[in-house]
Every structure is written in C-alpha cells, then in structure tokens.
C-alpha cells in the first residue's frame, strides 16, 4: 500500500487526510464480485461505510447495488449511477420526507423495521397512487459475537421486527393495498469473523421463510445483510477477505427456492483495507511515566478507537521498521480537548520525531464518514492513488 513513491508524495501534502489505494479497492471489489457471481448472489454495497465519491464510482462500476440508510444516501446512490432497481432503503427511523423521496425515485425496495412503518409507507404510497415494494427486516435474535456496540440482531437491539410481532406483520401485509411484499431481510451486526454466526443466521432465515410460506406468502428475496469482518491486526497480509468461504456458508446452509434471489449488504469488508488515515507528528512529549506522540489527527477524523476501543495498526512511515533498534512505547494521541482522544496506548514504534508521517491503517470503513467538526476542525480531505 505504501511504496517509496507514495511516501515521497505524502511529504509534500498537508495533513491529515484519508489516503485511498484505488487499485486495492478494485481488486477487493473484483474478488467479491467473482465469488458472489459463482453462487448467483447479489451484493448491495452498504453506503454508510464510506461515501467518498471515487469509492462510490468504483463500487458502482463493478455492478453492485446500494444499501442506503437515509434519503440522502438514496439520492447519492442514484447520482453516482447505481441502478434504481438495485437500491434498497433500510433504517429504523425513516422520515416521511425520506420515504416520499425514495417512492418518487422508484427504488427497488424498503427494508421495513416496524409495523407502524409499514402503515406509514402504505399511506404515503397510496397518496401517490404507487405500490411500494417492501421487505420485512426481522430481528432473528442471533448473537453476532462482536463488539456490544455493533451488535444489531438481538432482542434488546432497536433494529428490525421481533418474531413475536410477525402475526401483525402478516395481517398488515394482507390488508395494505399499496404494499408489495418481496421478501425478508436480516442484519445481525458488524465486524463478524466467526462463520458460525452466519450459519446460525441461515438456520433462522430458513425457519422464518417457512413461517411466511406456511401462511401463503411468496418470498422472492432472501436478504442476509452484511457484517463480514476484516483483519485489523495485519492489514498487509490477506488484505482481501476470503469472500468465497463467506458466500459458501450461505450456499450450503440457506434453503434457497427456485427463482429466489439471495441479497447481501456488505460495507466494511469492501472498503476498510484500501484506506488509511495519514497524519503528522506535531509534538513528541516525553513524560516521566509516559511518552506521547501528539498527531494532527484525532477523534474528529477517526473515532472508532475512542468509541469502540477498536484496534487499528499504527505505522510510522518516515522510519523503516526493519532498521529499528530503538523501539519506544508511545501513547498515540490527537489534538482534541478530550482525554479519550487517544488512538492507542503503549504503541511500540521506532523513535519518532516532529514531522514524521503516521498511518492509521484499515480506516476505509466507518472512518471518514464518521468524522465530525468538533473543535471547529477542518473537514478532512481525500487523496487517491490508482485513479
Ligand atoms: C442494515 C445494515 N446492512 C448492512 C450493514 C453493513 O454492515 P458491514 O459494514 O458490517 O458489512 C449495516 C451496518 O452494520 C446495516 O445496519
Ligand atoms: N460504525 C461501526 C459499525 C456500525 C455499522 C453500521 N450499523 C464501526 O465503526 O465499526
């Protein structure tokens, strides 16, 4: 990801910025597309992970659909050329304005997260003389075994409709003339690396599919959501996920009927490894108990370590690790006036100096999109290679 030319180029640039290796992104997209194609599966990109313009253009060019979580994401998907027939709109709190925009755009379907939302979509569609295609997002109560904050498929989570409410859903679908039921949707969490979780999900999807079919419904779409994780600890090895093993779980365990489509909504695994947050060391503070590297980027540029105690590899690109005989432990911190503004404590790095270039790796997913303007920070820009 970082050859000498790239590092030389960074020297002349103002930091911080997000660096995108578009070649690596394209290789990742090609691998996913090939593996999904092998099993006849369809992938919608979960745009919430990263909506950088070049990233969206690359993803669209590989024929992926778009999974959106706001009206603005729906509009962005259409703007960047995603086919409206491949745009889905999920989210637990869709406003009337957002629903109307999506109805007007005639997107493929709404992933509906409550019985009341079904009523609202039906009313808004009826008022426009339209039929809204809907998939029911069901909370399957499957534990994703991931960080507590990014689990979405347990009874205690706000997402989806609990199975004990399915009778109400069935009744509402039967009585709502402006809804067309297309399928069932699930998403149990993010950064999942244990394939057993996806096996358990398949078992639940099969059970719920049977429940609907027993009541006379036809399911055209089985949507298994996203959640496949990446390796944050070694971004230079296996930086492209094993998509084949992931999809094979669904091939082997999902009960797919003839004519049905299987959809996925992958976000993180498509974009995480091909980007890094690049910053400079502003100050080296040697305390009695601690050494601090104060960077010019902080929680306003990448909040994952502070929010989820997430691990990101940190490299000093100005020092060659092979020649290091002088490793020092630093707390790598940002400039923001919060004590939690720390990327990681006790990071072993070569002796580092003011002006050194630091890369915080695997930052392409939920990095730039979660940046904030706290402390009136300047919005962070993107730098690309492989355009
Ligand atoms: C409904 C839905 N689909 C897809 C995703 C994408 O998840 P990931 O980036 O883990 O693949 C999310 C985020 O967790 C989501 O909430
Ligand atoms: N933002 C989270 C994941 C949430 C995914 C969206 N439901 C992260 O940084 O890992």
From TrEMBL:
InterPro entries: Ala_racemase/Decarboxylase_C, DAP_deCOOHase_LysA, De-COase2_C, De-COase2_CS, De-COase2_N, De-COase2_pyr-phos_BS, Orn/DAP/Arg_de-COase, PLP-binding_barrel. One of its GO terms (molecular function) is diaminopimelate decarboxylase activity. This is Diaminopimelate decarboxylase. SUPFAM superfamilies: Alanine racemase C-terminal domain-like, PLP-binding barrel. Gene3D superfamilies: Alanine racemase (3.20.20.10), Lyase, Ornithine Decarboxylase, Chain A, domain 1 (2.40.37.10). Its cofactor is pyridoxal 5'-phosphate. NCBIfam families: lysA. Keywords: Amino-acid biosynthesis, Decarboxylase, Lyase, Lysine biosynthesis, Pyridoxal phosphate. Pathway: Amino-acid biosynthesis; L-lysine biosynthesis via DAP pathway; L-lysine from DL-2,6-diaminopimelate: step 1/1. It catalyses: meso-2,6-diaminopimelate + H(+) = L-lysine + CO2. Its EC number is 4.1.1.20. It comes from Mucilaginibacter roseus.
């Amino acid at each position: 990801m970082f050859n000498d030319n790239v590092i030389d180029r960074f020297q002349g640039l103002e930091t911080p910025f997000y660096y995108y290796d578009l070649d690596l992104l394209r290789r990742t997209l090609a691998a996913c597309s090939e593996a999904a194609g092998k099993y006849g599966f369809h992938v919608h990109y979960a745009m919430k992970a990263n909506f950088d313009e070049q990233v969206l253009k690359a993803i669209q060019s590989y024929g992926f659909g778009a999974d959106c979580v706001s009206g603005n994401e729906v509009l962005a998907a259409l703007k960047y050329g995603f086919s409206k027939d491949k745009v889905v709109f999920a989210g637990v709190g869709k406003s009337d304005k957002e629903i109307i925009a999506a109805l007007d755009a005639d997107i493929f379907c709404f992933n509906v997260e409550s019985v009341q939302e079904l009523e609202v979509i039906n009313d808004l569609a009826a008022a426009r003389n339209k039929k809204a295609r809907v998939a029911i997002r069901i909370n399957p109560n499957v534990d994703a075994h991931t960080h507590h904050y990014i689990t979405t498929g347990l009874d205690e989570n706000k997402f989806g409709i609990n199975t004990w409410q399915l009778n109400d859903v069935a009744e509402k679908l039967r009585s709502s003339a402006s809804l067309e039921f297309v399928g069932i949707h699930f998403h149990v969490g993010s950064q999942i690396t244990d394939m057993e979780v996806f096996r358990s999900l398949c078992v639940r999807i099969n059970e719920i599919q049977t429940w609907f079919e027993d009541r006379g419904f036809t399911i055209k779409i089985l949507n298994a959501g996203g959640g496949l994780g990446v390796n944050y600890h070694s971004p230079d090895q296996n930086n492209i996920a094993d998509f084949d093993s992931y999809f094979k779980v669904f091939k082997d365990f999902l009960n797919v009927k003839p004519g049905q489509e299987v959809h996925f909504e992958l976000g993180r695994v498509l974009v995480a490894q091909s980007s890094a947050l690049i910053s400079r060391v502003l100050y080296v503070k040697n305390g009695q108990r601690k050494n601090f590297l104060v960077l010019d980027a902080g929680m306003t540029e990448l909040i994952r370590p502070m929010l989820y105690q997430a691990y990101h590899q940190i490299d000093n690109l100005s020092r060659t690790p092979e020649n290091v005989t002088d490793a020092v432990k630093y707390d790598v911190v940002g400039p923001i006036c919060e004590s939690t503004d720390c990327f990681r404590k006790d990071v072993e790095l070569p002796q580092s100096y003011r002006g050194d270039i630091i890369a915080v790796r695997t930052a392409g997913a939920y990095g730039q999109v979660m940046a904030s303007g706290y402390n009136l920070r300047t919005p962070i820009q993107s730098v690309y290679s492989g355009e």
